[in-house]
């Protein structure tokens, strides 16, 4: 198949990990006979330096006309002055809003070979397989802001329609998994959370085959550490989802491992690792590229509907996590390119075997 992919490497380790994800997609194209084209654009601090804006119009237009968007990370100390009038992060938020990608999928499936890196005991990690569905274009991130010298406000606002669409997405996804949804809110305090809870409960009536449970966010932060295997799909608002998924990444052993897919109404999606620009290691070529590479797998699955290809990438990553080489965050000394090359070599093997499998299926079928 033919696909046009917009790449937005961004800042810090963004370009380093995005290059590895692009290499994965190029390898998939070669092995499976696809024609992917890549078109690179500015976003974040790099875009501010170039044009004065964190999301230049040309970047948004290119993303809107692409089949999928692959992003690295934005931000860094250079653009972090609290009094700055433009910030890299504004570019990312404007991109998410501009593409209408309201559902941010962040899967967590810790690899047992990395259990020693997790703060949890091995037995608690067994059978952990959680899909976080974070609302991405509403809440405090997008509400009105005010600032004077001695006070500031961020309005947290949700509409029923915004809650309904992300809740439906969570229930639909639960149907492809273990049929369980946990909705996380702070309904004992926040009006937006009471609206959230009422709306999610209402939507649940359309999904009688899926069980719904509500948890308060403070309690959920604790439960993620004490019984993470009890959760299937976890749906929550923007800010709670941001925080809980960094916590979840720690269970897997490193923030560098987790991918994400941000989806809206059509097939187009925005794919990025959940980590940031990692200024402490940027430019050293030691960042873990696996979160970005797994984001490429999600791109194949959700925007291009190439499930066998996505599985081949995931199997290749799995194999490397099983035996190394490991980047520094995983306790090894392999650089970004060494990890990339190991995944590409494993992919050569998996792509050939899944290709042979599908050719065999076609021959039988
Ligand atoms: P961060 O995610 O950049 O880094 C947190 C820690 O995790 C650091 O020690 C870093 O070295 C480590 N880490 C992150 N990714 C890694 C990887 N791939 N391999 C190995 N180690 C990795 O968070 P931060 O330091 O709080 O934020 C830095 C900047 O990134 C800020 O400007 C923030 O706004 C931005 N940020 C951007 C995104 C995004 O673009 N989606 C996400 C989070 C943070
Ligand atoms: C993330 C990041 C972003 C967020 C920031 C950089 C705006 O932390 O993608 O998780 O808070 O959504
Ligand atoms: Mn975050």
What this model shows, in words?
The protein folds into 2 domains: 1-101 and 281-365, Isopropylmalate Dehydrogenase (3-Layer(aba) Sandwich); 119-252, Isopropylmalate Dehydrogenase. The protein has 12 helices and 12 strands. It has helices at 14-32, 45-51, 57-65, 88-99, 122-125, 160-175, 191-204, 217-226, 238-252, 290-302, 307-323, 336-364; strands at 2-10, 35-40, 68-73, 103-108, 130-135, 145-147, 152-154, 180-185, 211-216, 233-236, 261-263, 269-271. The site of manganese (II) ion has 2 residues, from helix 9.
In brief, what are we looking at here?
With 365 residues, the chain is of the alpha/beta class. The chain has 2 domains: 1-101 and 281-365, 3-Layer(aba) Sandwich (Isopropylmalate Dehydrogenase), CATH 3.40.718.10; 119-252, Isopropylmalate Dehydrogenase. Helix content is 45%, strand content 17%.
What is the CA-CA span between the terminal residues? 22 Å
CATH second-level architecture of the largest domain: 3-Layer(aba) Sandwich
The secondary-structure element order is: EHEHHEHEHEEEHEHEHEHEEHHH
Strand order of the largest sheet: 2-1-3-12-11-4-5-10-8-9
Provide the CATH top-level class of the largest domain: Alpha Beta
Return Rg in Å.
20 Å
Small molecules bound: nicotinamide-adenine-dinucleotide, 3-isopropylmalic acid, manganese (II) ion
Number of domains: 2
The helix-and-strand class reads alpha/beta
- Principal-axes geometry comes out as globular
The proportion of residues forming helix, as a percent range, comes to 40-55%
> Count of helices?
12
Described by its quaternary structure, the protein is single chain
């Amino acid at each position: 198949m033919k696909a046009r992919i917009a790449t937005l490497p961004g800042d810090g380790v963004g370009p380093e990990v995005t290059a590895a994800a692009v290499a994965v997609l190029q390898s998939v194209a070669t092995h499976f006979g696809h024609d992917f084209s890549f078109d690179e654009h500015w976003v974040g601090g790099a875009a501010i330096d170039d044009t004065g804006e964190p999301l230049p119009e040309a970047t948004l237009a290119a993303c809107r006309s692409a089949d999928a968007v692959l992003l690295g990370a934005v931000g860094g100390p250079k653009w972090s002055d609290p009094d700055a009038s433009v910030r890299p992060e504004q570019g990312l938020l404007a991109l998410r809003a501009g593409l209408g990608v309201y559902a941010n999928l962040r899967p967590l499936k810790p690899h047992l070979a990395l259990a020693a890196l997790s703060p949890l005991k091995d037995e608690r990690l067994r059978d952990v397989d959680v899909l976080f569905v974070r609302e991405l274009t509403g809440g405090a991130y997008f509400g009105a802001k005010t600032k004077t010298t001695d006070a500031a406000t961020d309005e947290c606002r949700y509409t029923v329609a915004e809650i309904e669409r992300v809740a439906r997405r969570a229930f639909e996804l639960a149907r492809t998994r273990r049929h369980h949804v946990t909705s996380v809110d702070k309904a004992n305090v926040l009006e937006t959370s009471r609206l959230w809870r009422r709306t999610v409960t209402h939507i649940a009536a359309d999904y009688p085959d899926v069980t719904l449970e509500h948890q308060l966010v403070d309690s959920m932060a604790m439960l993620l550490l004490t019984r993470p295997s009890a959760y299937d799909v976890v749906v929550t608002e923007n800010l709670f989802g941001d925080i809980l998924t960094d916590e979840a990444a720690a269970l897997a052993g490193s923030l560098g491992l987790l991918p994400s897919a941000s989806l809206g109404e059509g097939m187009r999606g925005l794919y990025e690792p959940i980590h940031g620009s990692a200024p402490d290691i940027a430019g050293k070529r030691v960042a873990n590229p696996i979160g970005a590479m797994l984001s490429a797998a999600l791109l194949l699955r959700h925007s291009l509907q190439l499930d066998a290809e996505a599985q081949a990438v995931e199997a290749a990553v799995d194999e490397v996590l099983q035996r190394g080489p490991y980047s520094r965050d995983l306790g090894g000394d392999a650089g970004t390119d060494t990890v990339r090359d190991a995944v590409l070599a494993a992919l050569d093997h998996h792509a050939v075997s899944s290709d042979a499998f599908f050719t065999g299926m076609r021959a039988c079928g």
